Amino acid sequence: MRIVLDGMGSDNHPLPEVKAAVSAASLFGDEILLVGDQAQLQPLLEKENSANAPVRIVHAPEVFKMTEKISGSALRNEDNSMGVGMDLIKSGEADALITAGNTGGAMAIALSRLGRIAGVKRPALSALFPVKGGYCVVTDIGANTECKPEYLVQFAVMGAVYAEKVLGKQSPRIGLLSNGEEAGKGNQLVKDTFPKLEQSGLNFVGNIEGKELFGGEVDVAVMDGFTGNVLLKSSEAVAKLMVDKLREALMSSPRTKVGALLAKPAFKILNKALDPAEVGAVPLLGVDGLVFVAHGRSNAHALVSAIRIARQAVEAGVIEALRSSIAEELSGKN
Amino acid sequence: MRIVLDGMGSDNHPLPEVKAAVSAASLFGDEILLVGDQAQLQPLLEKENSANAPVRIVHAPEVFKMTEKISGSALRNEDNSMGVGMDLIKSGEADALITAGNTGGAMAIALSRLGRIAGVKRPALSALFPVKGGYCVVTDIGANTECKPEYLVQFAVMGAVYAEKVLGKQSPRIGLLSNGEEAGKGNQLVKDTFPKLEQSGLNFVGNIEGKELFGGEVDVAVMDGFTGNVLLKSSEAVAKLMVDKLREALMSSPRTKVGALLAKPAFKILNKALDPAEVGAVPLLGVDGLVFVAHGRSNAHALVSAIRIARQAVEAGVIEALRSSIAEELSGKN
Hints:
Oligomer: homodimer
Number of helices of chain A: 14
CATH architecture of the domain at 1-120 and 286-334 in chain A: 3-Layer(aba) Sandwich
Largest interface: A-B, 62 and 61 residues
Structural class of chain A: alpha/beta
Largest sheet of chain A: 11 strands, mixed
Strand order of the largest sheet of chain A: 3-2-1-4-11-10-5-6-9-7-8
CATH class of the domain at 1-120 and 286-334 in chain A: Alpha Beta
Order of helices and strands of chain A: EHEHEHHEHEEHEHEHEHHHHEEHH
Strand content of chain A: 15-25%
CATH topology of the domain at 1-120 and 286-334 in chain A: Isopropylmalate Dehydrogenase
Distance between the termini of chain A: 37 Å
């Protein structure tokens, strides 16, 4: 197996990427292709890679910046590290790519370089949310702000493949996020999507709310990208607010300060349970190649987690399974 | 001032309502009208009201049930406690009503009994979310799953009045919830609403995400009712998940158990900071009369909080301010 790591993606690139490439190559024993500006990467790699782990630099002179607009010219001017990296997937030289760069840019470049899996209407971004007892695949979290029912059905199909292959769920339970559990609740999109999911042959459990999602009652939660993005960012913000309020409350008296000191290992467990770095990266589901986007703030540890997820997806044959599930969905309609 | 409390609203009615009516009447010194089945309410009131606080029962033979469908006949068959209570607002005998009953039912009955404030296109449900440093008015949280830009502008106008009168905010900061802070981000509804809010004369700060909302950077967050309902329920679910994970982590070793015991007062502060009972109740903004819906699980303490909020809204002249703000908004358009 060969994994491509965009060397120029994260907010603090390229050091976290160089460190992650070296760690992952040592840990997993397979070659990591580190794509980016050779002049920057080479000296760092020499310094970090004293053990000679199998990391190879592939030169790309440009960077697609975090703040960059996704324009046709930016996409065509394709010597940036994401584009060069994706060409390695396209040519079959590598099996998956991870970038901590601009998500919209990654999606646009992937669509122009790799294209869609045959039959996919709209690729989606899918996150693994920490929930009670494990994880839930939440899709779409922002690629498609306006959706049609048939897009949501495909998000469910692709989310189910991902839950099966990466989370090991048999016949994953699919929920449709709505403003009430009862059938018939929802905005027009949800109301129109519900019967299509019922007829999809998927293990559709019906409408769900936050309670069911975070309570671990489904393996895949389906929604349009606007709602999913609001859900993702609000959940992160609520978690942060709670940690802040807890910290404040713990500092409110000498007694609680001592308590906090003793309870510190518990707070570490909590942080780890909720840390996005533990989950690693968001796949672009529906693109014809395995591309994962990690958080811009990713450190080396988070990038190694992302590489682990990508390796798992390669081993489990996620792309092949997506191709056949989408083909099956389409043939079912005819 | 006179407040109406629906005696038959909460999941455990009528005892929490009777207790709350007695407490609030003692605390605030004004009469509480407790509406519901006299045969059930009278003996409980006699038992609870040994101090003779000013609580008067107004008989209503029926209950609009939590699970009831909002049909024309249910609304016309109007001897239920919500309907009888709203008639007391309509006739001017009382100034505000609180119910812990069915939210959709309360909205439908309010619309049929009290109507809308002149010029209001769609009444909205508004919740006070606990955020960093205080509260944020979030509207709509579920009354309108399909919205037009002009509805959202009115939600902003009404939310601003509520933030000013109940939270004491001068020139409240209005944010439009979107999937990115930049102008131009959003689904079609958000994109179409943005320029209208810019021209509204309100203190519109632009698009916001969960970070700004929960970070206390706006006083009013505007969104359609589908998104708001998802936001509300997901936030509650994330908070619950975190408390559960924290509890689990604290029970993981003898050391952390001792820490948890010492830190107990801090957890109480945290619970209080996030407890919906502390905020009390959700106003039906745009209905021509002050109606508040409390959580179905409300206990007496939560209902007294709701009565406190309702009193504050009466004293601050929320209805009058809503009428004049909506009239101003409409005249500004002509």
